Amino acid sequence: MTASFPLSAAAVTGLQDVQHIIRPRSIVIVGASADPRSFGGFVQGNLERFAYSGVLHLVSRSSDEINGRPCVKTVDELPEGIDLAVLAIPESGVLDTVKALAARRCKAAVLFASGYAEAGEEGQRKQAELARVAQASGILLVGPNCMGFTNLAAGIPVTFEPLAPRAPETRPGVGVVAQSGFMAANLRDAYLGRGVPVTTVFSTGNEVSVCVEDVLAALIADPQTRVITVYVEQIRRPTVFLQLAAQARAAGKPLVLLMPGRSARAREAAQSHTGALAGDHATATALLQREAVVVVSSLDELLDTTTVLLRYPQPPAGGTAFMTGSGAMKNIALDFADDLGLDLPELTPATVEQLTAMLPAYAVAENPLDYTTIGIRQPGLIGELVLTMLADERIGSIVLAIPVGPTMAQRDKADHIIPTIGRASKPTVLVLTGDSSPVEPFFLDAIEASGVPLFRSADRALRALRRVAQYGEALQRAARAQSNAIEAVPLPGAVPPNGIFAEYQGKAWLARAGLTVPQGALASTADDAVAVARRIGFPVVLKAQASELPHKSDVGGVLVGLADEAALRTGWDQLFASVKHHRPELVLDGALVEAMGPRGLELVVGAKRDADWGPVVLVGLGGIWIEALKDVRLIPADMAEEDIVVELGRLKAAVVLQGIRGAAAVDVRAIARVVAQVGAQMRANPNITEIDINPLVAYPLGSAVPVLALDALVVAQVAAQPVHPVK
Fold first, then answer.
1. For residue 215, which of 127, 163, 150 has the smallest C-alpha distance?
2. Domain 19-309 has CATH 3.40.50.720
3. pLDDT (0 to 100) of residue 250
4. Is the link from the previous residue into 539 a cis peptide, with omega within 30 of 0?
5. Residue 3: CA atoms inside 13 Å, Cβ hemisphere, count?
6. Where are the beta strands (DSSP E) in 242-375?
7. What angle do CA 205, 207, 213 make, to 5 degrees?
8. Contact by Cβ (8 Å): 84, 24
9. What's the sign of the alpha-carbon dihedral 638, 643, 647, 648?
10. What is the pTM of this model?
11. CB 147 within 8 A of CB 161
12. Model pLDDT, residue 145
């Protein structure tokens, strides 16, 4: 499917049109050189080898002509309105040259030079000045610290890498955008080496002007680009990127992204590499996946997943099948798929019946399927087995793992298996086992002609199909996401100076938002406390209350199990004395008197508004478990309840929710409802920055009160400040 999706720079706020960069009608090389191994020489050589059809100008201080092309000595001698300048000069001359180009109304420039934000404080100052000049003059800058770009569809290589000439690419292909020049080139070479068509490869470097988002918009709008590969070390405009990801999703163009930064050392390296200041990787990942961005964790996955999605852009509905002629490979696949969380579903009875009729009596018709040695005598039957399994409604994709074999066996496979599996409409990948064992050229040609993605590793094939399955799941989740038509519950009064509402205020707000909190009330005297306790019933909990006291237990501000009036009055005096001892300057609003909640399973539900990315919700086991296991799921704030239930099932300790060692199963749907309610209020109230419910106690299925928020913290912005817009 080739998407034709209208998207211009104006479609998403803050984008810049880079079409005149990617398809320039005129180019000037500033720093042109007769030395073919100079940066200027490489750029000119590339353009000439690719037979660039536009107008090419040269600026050289040392040469009057290069390869028969005339040179001018300075930028001032150039005609006005050139589309693109390539600065093959040292950093020391860049700023003045950019100013001169702007005066000649040059539209854009590619800057190869390094020594800017990636080089420390002085480099950051230079980059800031470069950005100021570019913005003031209206010239767009690509880089600095980049390797340029190559438009393979139009045959325009604007890079200092010496490239072998290629005919313009006419097939639908992969578009690549990367902040790293090395990674852009690496991905380009890897795809081309696999025979994967590539449309445009763009390196953005330090992004002083043109950013990943600008290039991404152009690739989404390009009808020839079917899948987009992105490598970033920081997404500098998260709101814009998420809007573009939604556009790509609507256009049916998979967007596959690798973003290092899960580890602290990777975040530090990213800063030194591109001048990026890494954000919250987990938050970014959750919200990118919400827009069906395929976020991968390795370079192998980036290459493999993109390759499969280019061939099969429609995500599969159903699980994965695995076929092989080896019982050992079948067992390995079972274990590895289980580790990945990749569904290998049972086949329908009708499929089992069909396979049984095709297989020898000693073979078992199941998934994974070991078809035994029949391929030696009947190689064509293997392809028919693949199509039979793919016809099963439970199967959405398949891996066929076969040995390379001797030349005769390769000929059989090329003639009888490959043409058949090439007709498959569902994602089908071929694994040739034997690692680096040689494959005959005719066999490789047959595989390439079929379009079936080729792997030499079953592990990599299964990982890729898991990512493809996740893409399909993400598309379905996006379609089920909660509506934006949410009524915001007003905050409980004016925001305190520190932004933190006292617990009694936060709980009152949560109760109005639909959550269940313990019965109770704020008391200002011991007599008030006794009156509240008589109304709700003993035993009770007593908690000191003040905006400046979010962590009450640290100062003895929480007393539990107060069984009668005498214990409550004694506890009142004890609590106020303890707080006074630890925080003599603090004036309490009073004390919260609440009914003791019955014991249950403790969870934590929290939400935060990232300044760049927006709101996300966290859910996991609470109490000591959150510290010991860090077993939580990070969820977009608009995720539907049914999908939250699925996320709860992905907790490492999900079995605890289902009941273990005699404990009853808790009401998982009630937990999911709380998560959804919290997310809804985060989206409806953009001035709320944090919600923390810890613990949220869950009770067995059928309980009158399925969940109870025992403690809560609500934080809001203190003053009018820019906030992340609500989607």
1. 150
2. yes
3. 95
4. yes
5. 24
6. 255-258, 294-296, 319-324, 369-370
7. 105
8. yes
9. positive
10. 0.90
11. yes
12. 94
Asked if residues 390 and 424 have their Cβ atoms less than 8 Å apart, the reply is: yes
pLDDT for 660 equals 80
587 C-beta neighbours (distance < 10 Å), count: 7
**Which part of the chain has CATH 3.30.470.20?**
601-716
DSSP 410-452: HHHIIIIIHHHHTT-SS-EEEEEESTT----HHHHHHHHHHT-
What's the mean pLDDT when you consider all of the chain?
A: 92
CA-to-CA dists, residue 677 to 491, 636, 645, 681, 701, angstroms: 15, 12, 14, 6, 20
- Residue located via tokens 């005096």: 573
CATH 3.30.470.20 fits 601-716, yes or no: yes
CATH 3.40.50.261 fits 314-480, yes or no: yes
Start-end ranges of CATH 3.30.1490.20 in the chain? 519-595
The number of angstroms, rounded, from the C-alpha of 645 to the middle of its chain's C-alpha atoms is: 21
Query: What CATH number should be reported for the domain whose range is 519-595?
Result: 3.30.1490.20
Structure token digits, residue 589: 């609003």
Q: Using CB atoms within 10 A of its CB, is residue 719 exposed (0-12), middle (13-18) or buried (19+)?
A: exposed
Least Cα distance to 196 among 217, 221, 220, 171 occurs for: 171
Token couple for 475: 């598309």
pLDDT digits (tens, 9 = 90+) for 285-297: 999 999 999 999 9
Name the amino acid, one letter, at 657. Answer: L
Tokens 């006074």 locate to 580
Structure tokens at 722: 């820019």
Q: What is the pLDDT of residue 487?
A: 78
Q: Output the CA–CA distances (angstroms, integers) from residue 163 to 42, 47, 69, 152, 183, in the order listed.
A: 9, 9, 20, 11, 16
Residue 476: which residues within 8 A CB-CB, separation 6 or more?
none
Residue extent(s) of CATH 3.40.50.720 domains in the chain: 19-309
In the chain, which residues fall in CATH 3.40.50.261?
Answer: 314-480
269 in helix, strand or coil?
helix
Please give the helix or strand (H or E) that residue 286 lies within, else none. Answer: helix 281-290
Instruction: Please state, in angstroms and rounded to a whole number, the distance separating the CA atoms of residues 236 and 234.
Output: 6
Give the DSSP letter string of 478-502.
HHHPPPS--PPPPPSSSPPTTSEEP
* Residue 559: both structure tokens together: 């007393």
Task: Show the low-confidence residues of the chain (pLDDT under 70).
Answer: 1-11, 262-279, 483-486, 623-629, 719-727
